[in-house]
UniProtKB/TrEMBL annotation:
Keywords: DNA-binding, Transcription, Transcription regulation. Belongs to the LysR transcriptional regulatory family. It holds the Pfam family HTH_1. The keyword Transcription applies. One of its GO terms (molecular function) is DNA-binding transcription factor activity. GO terms for cellular component: protein-DNA complex. This is DNA-binding transcriptional LysR family regulator. The keyword Ribonucleoprotein does not apply. The lineage of its organism: Bacteria, Pseudomonadati, Bacteroidota, Flavobacteriia, Flavobacteriales. Residues 5-62 form the HTH lysR-type domain. It comes from the Bacteria.
Length: 298
């Protein structure tokens, strides 16, 4: 049987399958609703199948439609990647790698990795986007990003996790705070303080580890603000809205209005890990992973 199916039919089908609404799908594709309906009908007639059940204004996928949505979503992503890679080759690039990362990975880990990698692969295009842990997981599963850098203990079974950096935490205090490294003894000295912490949505497991620090010191913190950006934490701390606890890799010497105390005598440590989708076929990913996996956890 010969199918007169073109690439556009598949894109149009997936848009309707995602929205389950012809008008909204047409708007997302920047085409007319009648034109979209005609394309879907052509696809159904060519394949000899029914893709959607239409009842008044309700649209539902048939069993065949649901199967095609799942399979095409996966395989068209690979096709798009192949076509994009071809365009990169035409432009003189050997490929592209899309990174997601939590802010602390950009302090040292990612710059060192890119410098190391580009010595032998100078024609790679890198896309870098700061994202919280959950957004990275979503991006990796959808293969919108190729590799992530997260603070997570467990991940989806389709993903691989490789620890890179295990490090202590640091207290972050306003510069004029009466406690510093010379008179610091325990976290319990701050039980009356307000704390500015990374939001639990940043990473539930990371948040629980920070809470364990407080539990070990016999008090629950007064949390005044939650955020997912270190820059926001530092701005709030320097303006005396509270103090904070962050990974050591976020320690900076560029802000004269805050100071840090390393918490080296507590058992809690936080681990930064590289994460990727085992089904990702990007050839550049495997080359980067070969460098990452040679590194022992620091």
């Amino acid at each position: 049987m010969s199918y007169q199916i073109e690439y556009r039919h598949l894109k149009y089908f997936l848009a309707v399958a995602e929205h389950l609404h012809f008008r909204k799908a047409a708007e997302s594709l920047y085409i007319s609703q009648p034109g979209l309906s005609r394309q879907i009908k052509e696809m159904e007639e060519s394949l000899g199948v029914k893709l959607f059940e239409r009842h008044n204004r309700n649209v539902k996928l048939t069993t065949v439609g649901l199967y095609l949505k799942l399979e095409l979503s996966k395989n068209l992503k690979s096709l798009d990647a192949i076509l994009h890679h071809a365009k990169l080759l035409e432009d003189g690039k050997d490929g592209q790698l899309n990174f997601g990362y939590v802010g602390s990975a950009m302090q040292k880990i990612i710059p060192e990795l890119l410098l190391n990698f580009t010595k032998t692969h100078p024609n790679i295009l890198f896309s870098l986007k700061e994202m919280d842990n959950n957004k990275q997981i979503e991006g990796l599963l959808a293969q919108d990003i190729d590799i992530g850098f997260v603070r997570l203990e467990k991940v989806h079974k389709g993903l691989e996790l490789h620890p890179i950096l295990k490090e202590p935490f640091c207290l972050v205090l306003p510069k004029n705070h009466p406690i510093d490294a010379s008179n610091f003894k325990t976290i319990s000295q701050f039980k009356e303080e307000h704390f500015i912490l990374f939001d639990p949505e940043y990473s539930a497991s990371y948040y629980e580890k920070v809470m364990d620090i407080f539990n070990d010191n016999g008090f629950s913190p007064l949390v005044s603000h939650n955020t997912i950006h270190a820059g926001s934490i530092y701005k709030l701390v320097e303006n005396n809205f509270g103090i904070s606890i962050v990974p050591k890799s976020l320690k900076t010497e560029n802000n004269a209005n805050i100071k840090f105390i390393e918490l080296t005598k507590i058992p809690q440590r936080t681990t930064l890990s590289a994460i990727w989708n085992k089904d990702n076929q990007n050839p550049i990913l495997s080359k980067v992973l070969s460098i990452i996996q040679k590194e022992n956890i620091k």
